[in-house]
Amino acid sequence: MATFHHFGVPVQNQQENEIYIEAGKVFITDADSHPYHSEFLRFEDDSPMHADVINNPHAAFMVDSLEEALQGQNVIIEPFDATETLRVAFINDNGAVIELMQQI
Predict the structure, then answer these.
(1) How far apart are CA 74 and CA 53, in angstroms?
(2) Structural domains for the chain
(3) Which of 23, 79, 98, 102 shows its CA 20 to 30 Å from the CA of 51?
(4) Tell me, what's the pLDDT at 31?
(5) CA 20 – CA 46 distance, rounded (Å)
(6) 10-residue averages of pLDDT along the chain (104 residues)
(7) Where are the strands (E) in the chain, listed by range?
(8) Which of 64, 60, 26 lies closest to 46 in space, CA to CA?
């Protein structure tokens, strides 16, 4: 089962209260603190993230099993530990960028 978590929007300008995710070389805001669950992402020039994620908005969903959710999908970013408690991956579903997230 997938539960909506946030909507991610790439930005160029620094945002208030950014959090740095070293694995993706990206600064993000806390979607839980935004009234519409929007997360703003500011990528470093040498970010290893896929161009689809850097250049397009995405919808993010919590899943029970990342491994199961990725079966048969067009995976554009393989699973990685975004934080000590969160593992994520990205897929491209017919042009829509989707982030799949699992608590660890």
Answers:
(1) 13
(2) 2-103 (3.10.180.10)
(3) 102
(4) 96
(5) 14
(6) 96 96 94 96 96 98 97 96 93 97 96
(7) 2-10, 19-21, 26-28, 38-43, 58-63, 75-83, 86-93, 96-103
(8) 26
